[in-house]
Amino acid sequence: MSAVSARLAELGIVLPEVVPPLAAYVPATQVGDLVHTSGQLPLVDGVLLAQGKVSENAEGVVDVETAVAAARQCALNALAAVHALVGIDSVKRVVKVTGFVASAPGFSGQPAVVNGASLLLGEVFGDAGVHVRSAVGVAELPLGAPVEVELTVQV
């Protein structure tokens, strides 16, 4: 068992099954020593953890705490896509995280939401999990998801 597999086990994290694509694309692809994932939604067993736009203070929307948990799930799904393609133990470092947050009008806390993904990657990979990142607010995401995350890792 490599350091990454051992760390996942130590954290009690089991990578989920790869989320099947919703359209005409693949979950991950390798170009040279980089693996790029497609955007991953916060699906668990085919069901979204939450639906709707993220807001700090409106009723009937996804709160920040739930959105952070959703971003973490997105990152787990992205790691599952990497694992299925090249094996999680081949990852040398996380290069980039791009997070999209379906944002209610006036919401500007996208960086805090995408931290759900970034913090997980730090827990799993340590210093090799430090990455560059974009956290972007958008009007809508597929299936009404509150968050979508994609990764680029070096293998």
Descriptive report:
It contains 3 helices and 7 strands, in the order αββββαβαββ. It has 155 residues and is an alpha+beta fold. The chain has one domain (4-19, 28-154): RutC-like (60s Ribosomal Protein L30, Chain: A, 2-Layer Sandwich), CATH 3.30.1330.40. The protein has a 5-stranded mixed β-sheet with strand order 1-2-7-5-6, with helices on one face. The longest helix has 23 residues, at 64-86. The radius of gyration is 15 Å and the shape is globular.
How are the elements arranged and paired?
Elements: H1 3-11, E1 28-31, E2 34-37, E3 43-44, E4 47-48, H2 64-86, E5 93-102, H3 110-125, E6 132-138, E7 147-154
Parallel strand pairs: 5-6
Antiparallel strand pairs: 1-2, 2-7, 3-4, 5-7
Salient structural properties:
RidA family protein, 60s Ribosomal Protein L30, Chain: A, 155 residues, globular, single chain, 3 helices, 24% strand, Endoribo_LPSP/chorism_mut-like, two-stranded antiparallel ribbon, RutC-like_sf, 5-stranded mixed beta sheet, alpha+beta
